[in-house]
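Students often ask what a 'structure token' actually looks like in practice. Rather than answer in the abstract, let us consider Metallo-beta-lactamase domain-containing protein, a protein of 365 residues. Its sequence is given first.
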Amino acid sequence: MGFPLTDVADLPTVGDRVESLTDLTEVEGGPGAKLATVRLQGRAFRQEFAASGTPDRIDTCDLITLPYPTRFGLFRASRAIAPFLSITNRMIVIRWTESDGRKRVLLFEPSDHELGRYTPYFDTLSARTPDVIENRMVRPHGTVLGHLTALGIAPNEVDYLMFDHLHTQDLRRWIGTSSYQADLNEHPEAAFPNAKVIVQRDELAGMADLHPLQKPWYQPDTFRDVPPEAFLPIDGSVILGPGVAAVKTPGHVFGNQSLVVNTSTGIWVSSENVIAAEALKPEHSKLPGLARWSRDWQQEIVLNANTIETTADQYNSIILEKTIADRSQKDSRFLQFFPSSELTGAWTNPGTTPTFTHGAISHTA
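Now compare that with the structural description of the same chain:
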């Protein structure tokens, strides 16, 4: 395949390692022992992170609403008759000031959804869906560059791009390529010339040799000609700035990571490990089936499981997220967990309208 990122040992990294969140592969015992360790570590990290300060500003930008199989998004729990639900993908823009006065800008989930649609799963789904139905279910809201313009941020001011994982992502227009791209009919220059992509080293290694369970969700060939030096591989959890952290949460993919931010309303966590805040608190959900399924199966969360790479690890990672996040000030039954792709009600999808939504994270210091 020619994927260039199989050896990233010499690339620089970023952030200060979080010592309270250790590698769970070193924990003796099975998944249950790891789950107990996760709860202890999550409480310790939550306490220290709350004292790390806050970023200057956080803005949330809607990108696109699209269909997603109900059996994936609400794994085994939903009794909705709708085969598809809708999720809205959003970008979070975080700005902070370093101790030396340097300003930083991080974009979390800056998906190029125009190219993301060519991910094998979504490309196949689109080919099978009549245009009139697709046009009702797929609703673009804005572009990454358009939102940044509205926020007064120039592309050359962006320091970091970060995704919870690289499913569906095509980064060529963001970080450039080393050669002409025939499918784009251009040799794209980097829209973000100074930005580095923060990614878990595990995911880069996994993308170099995808398992069949992973292949429908990645576009590995689009990484063939991207510059390796545009990446900042990290191993585990790191503090990126005051009140900003990348926390390793493996399971949904081997190198999954979550954004954690400390704000005026407390600590928020964001990833795609679940698609609704109520998936962390299914006992309060009015979605058909969720509360009963949680009781019957004695599971306290509902996975987003389009890939089942390491399901027990994903469950444990969600418990870590659940332990870290503060309660919502809008409704204390739920947590300040913000799905990077959030369940969105639609008349076309009966039985999938969420009980509770966040819609955005907003913060100004």
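One point worth highlighting: The radius of gyration is 19 Å. Ask yourself how you might have guessed this from the sequence alone, and why that guess would often be unreliable.
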